[in-house]
Specification:
mainly alpha
């Protein structure tokens, strides 16, 4: 147990160190020369980023306190209070209670982020009643489908030799199934999706999709503005369930050509089969995770006070310790993702115009108050996208005269070092 505690401690210290470095970097940079935004908006984006990092630092401390609680007392206590003889039902109840306790203890951070920080910066449109409904729906979905997954995995652990291989295949299959069902079954539980009414824009989008070989079940606008003012768009689903989803805020804020450029970027991921690359990397990561947790020493469980090799013991350890694995594995995934983003940008600029994509990126940064600068260590661990300045430079956005024209007089300084 000492080795695991030391490893988790290293993870938390490194995580907090990266967040502190980013917070210090932003605190200094926000008072410096504005980049890509007018001074007031640049300063506002810096303040927003700084507040988010401070929340993340506080969350990291709470995460460590929860780890100490569960390893030192919580798992043993939970095992003692659940007096159920059926090992499969006990696993479901054990894991559900574990998740509920963690959820309730970390919920204040989400509430503070949404109703205090996002409210202060003009992003939040969510009412308290809508927020409660969303949380109840999410909770019911997690308990319903999560309990089913826990039950099946527990059965596999008890009855199947080399259970970790079959458990991995089952869980990985569930992840793919969720991605397949999300746009048509899960997402509509939270938002209203309506077919795009702008016939001219719809025609242009369909032509763009056809040119890229992307077959979709339709182009939809989602009422995201009832919760948030930020802009986004995505291609959801797999196979025949694929659909183009535009946030209503995006349709309102971007011109037709800029919107097509954003979709062109996303189509670049499709053309380059990035989704399959991501699925492959996710599969490798989960395969390694299942192997590791299937071979944890019995002494670790005994030190914590729960039965070795019991399904609920393995699953709870998986949930408790996997963030450490993800933290050290994600830099590799993010490195590949950043390279894919450059390639997607190139494709988007080819099919919809370099200037259109460039202008769309600038609007997204400004409307979403995304601070354009970041500490290199923070980029290494957390950025799945390259810094916006580097993306713009890759699109040929280097001449100040060109920048001035694109931003229509707004303050720009993309040649400033990070």
């Amino acid at each position: 147990m000492l080795g695991v505690s030391i490893l988790y401690g290293i993870y938390i210290v490194l995580k907090i160190y990266v967040l502190v470095m980013q917070a210090g970097f932003v605190a200094k940079a926000k008072d410096g020369k504005p980049v890509l935004m007018m001074p007031s908006k640049f300063f506002k984006a810096g303040r927003y980023s700084l507040k988010k990092e401070r929340i993340a630092i506080a969350e990291a401390f709470v995460e460590y306190i929860l780890f100490i609680f569960w390893m030192g007392f919580g798992l043993r206590w939970l095992d003692s209070v659940i007096d159920i003889n059926d090992p499969l039902i006990k696993s479901v109840v054990f894991v559900d209670l574990f998740l509920i306790i963690n959820y309730l203890l970390t919920l204040p951070f989400d509430i503070y982020q949404k109703f205090v920080v996002d409210e202060e910066f003009g992003f939040n449109n969510t009412t308290l009643s809508l927020y409660i409904k969303d949380q109840l729906k999410k909770g019911l979905l997690v308990l319903l489908f999560g309990s089913l997954v826990v039950y099946v995995v527990s059965w596999i652990v008890l009855h199947v030799p080399n259970w970790w291989i079959w458990g991995f295949l089952f869980v990985f299959g569930v992840i793919i199934l969720i991605n397949f069902l999300y746009p048509t079954l899960i997402a509509p539980m939270f938002n209203k999706f309506t077919p795009l009414e702008d016939e001219e824009l719809k025609k242009d989008i369909e032509e763009l999709l056809q040119k890229s070989g992307f077959k979709s079940s339709g182009v939809y606008v989602v009422d995201s503005s009832k919760r948030d003012t930020r802009l986004n768009a995505y291609f959801g689903g797999l196979g025949k369930s694929k659909r183009v989803v535009l946030f209503d805020t995006l349709v309102q804020k971007l011109s037709k050509n800029e919107l097509l450029a954003v979709l062109g970027h996303e189509l670049g991921h499709f053309r380059h089969k990035d989704i399959y690359k991501n699925i492959f990397m996710l599969g490798v990561m989960f395969f390694a995770l299942f192997y590791i947790f299937a071979n944890l020493p019995d002494s670790l469980y005994q030190a914590v006070g729960i039965p070795p090799q019991a399904p609920y013991s393995i699953i709870s350890m998986f949930l408790l310790l996997s963030p450490v694995f993800f933290f050290f594995f994600l830099p590799l995934i993010n490195f590949v993702s950043r390279r894919n983003e450059y390639a997607a940008d190139r494709y988007g600029s080819e099919v919809a115009g370099r200037a259109n994509l460039r202008n769309a990126l600038l609007k997204l940064v400004e409307e979403n108050s995304h601070f354009p600068l970041a500490h290199p260590l923070y980029i290494f661990f957390y950025h799945s996208h390259p810094p916006i300045i580097q993306r713009l430079k890759a699109l040929g956005f280097e001449e100040q005269s060109e920048a001035d024209e694109a931003m229509k007089g707004e303050c720009i300084g993309i040649d400033q070092d990070r």
